[in-house]
UniProtKB/TrEMBL annotation:
Signal peptide: none
Ranges of residues in domain MacB-like periplasmic core: 21-260
Organism listed in the record: Candidatus Enterococcus moelleringii
Family per similarity comment: Belongs to the ABC-4 integral membrane protein family.
Chief location bin: membrane
Pfam families assigned to the protein according to its UniProt record, in alphabetical order: FtsX, MacB_PCD
Keyword hit for RNA-binding: no
Record's bilayer topology term: Multi-pass membrane protein
Keywords linked to the UniProt accession: Cell membrane, Membrane, Transmembrane, Transmembrane helix
Membrane-crossing segments per the record: 21-41, 293-317, 338-364, 384-406
Name of the protein described by the UniProt record: ABC transporter permease
Coiled-coil ranges per UniProt: none
């Protein structure tokens, strides 16, 4: 009997007792469905976290702040606060200087360091008369997820802003697309004279809501330089060029111990230093723990299903004992008998896994649509459940392996049957 004939025979024998086979496949379906869904959730959330990391910098990038500001709270929460002259908080008391930039550059295993202008205009004003507090940042060499428009340029002459999504409605725009191309005013007060001036900027994009944007709008280097110039107008040179954050690039290929040593070195010098991955590690651990528990439940379901496969094939061997004896009497080897029943087990695992993954994909698309319109409303760019073709193939192969291992006991029994005794079986 050729191999293709064995497969065809195994496939037809599988459905001799449809009820028993279908119940076994359903048991595998439940395990495959749960594993696929939890794997999709894990992939979706971790993919989103990776996107946030790319927006903030590479894994070798350190965000360095004065130690006194390391526990500071963001100015903005879910919505921008309306501006009033008395509401401007003085956060300029503890800044980093160009000397700090130079000192950090000279530290061991630091490739480069540059200031991150977290420039703080007094307010932003759009198409309405209301003014709102605003925080901005000027780091333009990272990948930023945008809901509409484009990223700001690194040119020193362009006054551009990629607006934080919280401001779209507040500034009088109907949508992110409507905001792109509009002009906003930024109010900046001179720290020396106390006089307030305004500078106009063009909205070239609107950011997606993310875990790392924290209400910040991204401005072009040209606009950042102008804001700093206006803010420091009239100040002595010794008081100019103060920075809230310095971004330092560590040398590539450092070990975890070396990275820890760099952070310790900075802490000893009076800085607070951490990578974006440090901020995300607790979230990743939580996501992996939750999906890990759900995967464990799915594994238990597959374990129970494997006993179902053993029972199904044992019953099949018992029902077909005389048939097996006849095939062996006609010259069919024990190896081919073993292979026939093993392929039946593989087919049960294949169909259960395939249907489970198919069901998970269908439910996943429904849940994604539901999430976008309910509890993930506003988190643009976040797909809760993402399915990877590679992961789906791996899941099916693992389930088929479990099914094969479960089927070895009844398959071995069938292969070891004595043809004479089998033919006498009633």
């Amino acid at each position: 009997m050729k191999f293709i004939d064995i497969i065809q025979s195994a496939s037809s024998n599988l459905w001799r007792n449809k009820g028993r086979t279908i119940l076994t496949i359903i048991a595998i379906f439940i395990g495959a469905f749960t594993i696929s869904l939890t794997s999709g959730v894990n992939s979706g959330i971790n993919s989103y976290l990776d996107q946030q990391l790319r927006e903030a910098g590479s894994k070798d990038t350190l965000m360095i702040t004065p130690e006194s500001l390391s526990n500071g709270k963001a100015l903005l929460q879910s919505k921008p606060k309306e501006y009033s002259p008395d509401s401007v908080t003085d956060i300029r008391e503890s800044y980093l200087t160009d000397q700090d930039v130079s000192d950090i550059k000279n530290m061991d295993n630091i490739e480069k360091a540059e200031p991150f202008y977290r420039s703080s205009p007094d307010y932003i004003q759009g198409d309405t008369n209301k003014k709102y507090l605003v925080t901005t940042a000027s780091k333009t060499d990272v990948e930023i997820s945008l809901e509409a428009g484009r990223a700001v340029t690194g040119n020193t002459t362009d006054y551009e802003v990629a607006l934080a999504p919280e401001y779209v409605e507040s500034l009088g725009y109907s949508s992110a697309e409507d905001a792109v191309g509009k002009t906003v005013k930024l109010g900046v007060t001179s720290q020396a004279s106390g006089e307030q001036e305004t500078v106009e900027a063009k909205i070239v994009g609107v950011r997606n809501v993310s875990l790392t944007q924290q209400g910040r709008s991204i401005i072009s280097k040209g606009l950042a330089s102008k804001i700093v110039e206006m803010s420091e107008s009239g100040m002595p040179e010794s008081m100019k060029h103060h920075h809230a954050t310095i971004f330092a690039e560590m040398k590539k290929g450092l070990s975890a111990e070396q990275m820890t040593a760099v952070k310790k070195q900075l802490e000893d010098a009076g800085y607070a230093a951490q990578t974006v991955e440090d901020e995300m590690v607790m979230i990743r651990q939580l996501v992996n723990a939750v999906t890990g528990v759900l995967t464990l439940f799915a594994a238990i379901a597959l374990l129970a299903a494997s006993f179902g496969i053993i029972n199904t094939l044992y019953m099949s061997v018992q029902d077909r004992t005389r048939e097996i004896g006849l095939m062996k009497a006609m010259g069919m080897s024990g190896g081919k008998v073993f292979l026939t029943f093993s392929i039946e087990a593989l087919l049960i695992g294949f169909w259960g896994g395939l249907l489970g993954i198919g069901g998970a994909v269908a439910v996943g698309h429904f849940l994604n649509d539901l999430a976008v319109s309910t509890f993930l409303d506003g988190l643009t760019g976040f797909t809760l459940i993402q399915f990877s073709f590679f992961n789906m193939i791996v899941i099916i192969l693992i389930i088929m392996l479990i099914a094969f291992l479960a089927g070895t006991l009844p398959a071995n029994r069938a292969a070891r049957l004595d043809p004479i005794n089998a033919l006498r079986y009633e």
